[in-house]
Design goal:
With about 550 residues, the chain is of the alpha/beta class. The chain is about 50% helix and about 10% strand. The chain has 20 helices and ten strands. The protein has an eight-stranded mixed sheet, sandwiched between helices. Strands 1-2 form a two-stranded antiparallel sheet. It starts with 12 loop residues before the first helix and ends in a 6-residue tail after the last helix. The relative contact order is 0.11.
């Protein structure tokens, strides 16, 4: 499986040097990113029409990040070159172009003179520095002047993700800390959470082909992969990109600030001993990280308790993932009690769930119809939604389809279904930025409702006597208190947390120590949702729209 992007290797080294010089010139603030403002000035030298440049930007910035890195810049330049030669700009233009590596750089009117001028001014600056003609600080400039520096405006960020991170730190995080959102709902976000690659998690009972599915997509084995008919994967394995092939222990990953797994430390050492990273260089892993999970228990095995909160860990990963694949095979359609709890823990992430009926070539066409019907019936009892969940049918492994069982109709069906699922996976990096915005807004709404709940409970507590009784009464009648908050602030019932889970965490806290409602903090989050985020998206849309 290949993600639709043009690798730098598709450009000759001589052309890469030329593009690097152009990129450095176009990157006005030297942050390694060309924003829309930079692009409008630079791309104007190509003399292409505005509609053509709009298409060039849309294809080059396929992930909708709001900027072009060096790789995307090369893609844009190659498309400009093809457009100048009279080709129509389409999504597949770079795939269908022969000898792309030696494609001549585009003609950029006046660029050579600007680059020469830039070199002269750079050399003059170096001469001045060597002559120690540094500007002296003004005597009127006070020491420690940095204290008076105001916060940089939102327009100074260079991508949508950077903007979201700044809004989180300035407006949402103070609300979360004040009302202990991290203890009740989700750990505080860090820089690595914003910077993380999209993730795909695979869930299912043992031997439904989860590890084989990842191996099939990668086209090779990955470190720590064990495949067999018995329960082989006994741990959570994060398959990610890295310079070399190796397995990394869970404790090491969890404390690494550059990885988005710090929140897993809350599940304790028992879980971290069953968690590991599998690192390897692979073009697909540069865009997507896979999470392989232990087989969900069924039958007699369910009576054996795991040493950590399995459904809690699944819920944590579900919130971080961009896609969740539930794998079944024709001989394992029963949904065990643990599997029901696992699916229930995915609540709130229903839009990410896809169901895969794997190993479908093990039964003939008639049996497959019955299996599909039975699977839909089983899922209908567990997934409490009126919509029908999307089920992909296929055999995701490296072996050819068993035509003896599947027949010619089944083979054609499997190929179409596999193509549809792979298209869904290929779209993940393109939709990652939109997904990040969606999750951020969802988190902001949840934090706001959490603040209303905590402050309401605090308000209901007596000032002096009978605090223990009041806390017990509020905890016992938590559902009624949620209804009061909903009516008072006109909030949707579907956005409230699970009463049972909230009650479980609440029992370990003293409500009297909670904070009262701070309207200014709520207003800051409302402003962020109503003005700041729309303004951010407007700043980083296609500059030619």
């Amino acid at each position: 499986m290949e993600i639709a992007s043009v690798p730098i290797s598709s450009c000759s080294k001589d052309n890469q040097k030329i593009y690097q010089e152009w990129f450095n010139y176009a990157d006005s603030d030297n942050d390694g990113r060309i924003t829309g403002t930079d692009a409008i000035k630079f791309f104007a030298m190509s003399k292409l029409s505005r509609p053509e440049l709009k298409q060039v930007w849309a294809i080059a910035d396929s992930k909708r990040q709001g900027f072009l890195g060096f790789r995307e810049f090369i893609t844009a330049m190659q498309m400009v070159s093809l457009a100048q030669a009279g080709n129509e700009i389409t999504l597949d233009i770079l795939k269908t172009t022969e000898d792309l590596e030696n494609l001549e750089p585009p003609s950029m009117e006046g660029l050579k003179a600007l680059l020469n001028k830039n070199k002269v001014s750079t050399n003059n600056c170096e001469l001045e520095l060597n002559g120690d003609s540094r500007p002296q600080p003004s005597p009127s400039t006070p020491w420690f002047a940095s204290k008076s520096i105001k916060k940089a405006p939102l327009t100074s960020v260079t991508s949508i993700i950077d903007g979201l991170e700044r809004l989180y730190n300035e407006k949402l995080k103070p609300l979360e800390v004040t009302y202990r959102f991290n203890d009740f709902v989700s750990p505080l976000l860090t820089h690595s959470d914003f910077d993380a690659k999209p993730m795909v998690m695979l869930l299912g009972q043992y031997s439904t082909g989860k590890t084989t599915f990842i191996k099939h997509l990668l086209g090779c084995n990955f470190p720590g992969a064990h495949i067999g008919p018995e329960p082989t994967t006994d741990r959570f394995v994060v398959v990610m990109s890295g310079p070399d092939e190796r397995s990394i222990p869970g404790n090491t990953i969890a404390v690494n600030a550059e990885m988005p797994f710090n929140g897993l430390t809350t599940f304790g050492g028992a879980f971290l001993s069953k968690f590991e990273g599998s690192q390897m260089p692979h073009p697909l892993l540069e865009h997507i990280t896979f999470v392989d999970t232990p087989g969900v228990l069924s039958g007699e095995k369910q009576r054996t308790q795991r040493s950590y909160d399995f459904t809690g860990v699944i819920s944590w990963f579900a919130a971080k993932c961009d896609l969740i694949l539930l794998l079944f095979d024709p001989h394992k359609l029963d949904i065990s009690d643990e599997f029901k709890r696992v699916i229930a823990s995915l609540h709130g992430n229903d839009d990410k769930i896809r169901v895969v009926l794997n190993k479908a070539d093990q039964v003939d066409t008639q049996q497959l119809m019955r299996v599909y019907g039975a699977l839909m019936w089983s899922l209908g009892k567990v997934l409490n939604t009126p919509e029908v969940v999307r089920v992909y049918i296929g055999s995701f492994n490296d072996k050819p389809v068993n035509e003896t069982a599947a027949g010619p109709i089944g083979k054609d069906l499997f190929e179409k279904e596999q193509d549809n699922l792979l298209a869904d996976l290929i779209d993940i990096p393109k939709k990652a930025c939109d997904r990040r915005i969606n999750e951020f807004v969802k988190r902001a709404r949840a934090a706001k409702i959490h603040a209303y709940i905590i402050s309401h409970l605090k308000k209901e507590m007596p000032a002096m006597m009978g605090k223990a009784k009041a806390q017990q009464r509020l905890t016992d009648n938590l559902e009624d208190e949620f209804a009061k908050i909903q009516r008072e602030f006109h909030l949707p019932a579907g956005d409230f947390p699970s009463v049972e889970q909230f009650k479980e965490v609440l029992n370990s806290y003293s409500i009297d120590k909670f904070e009262k409602l701070k309207p200014r903090m709520i207003q800051a989050v409302d402003d962020m949702l109503g003005y700041d985020i729309p303004e951010l998206l407007k700043n980083f849309r296609n500059p030619y729209e």
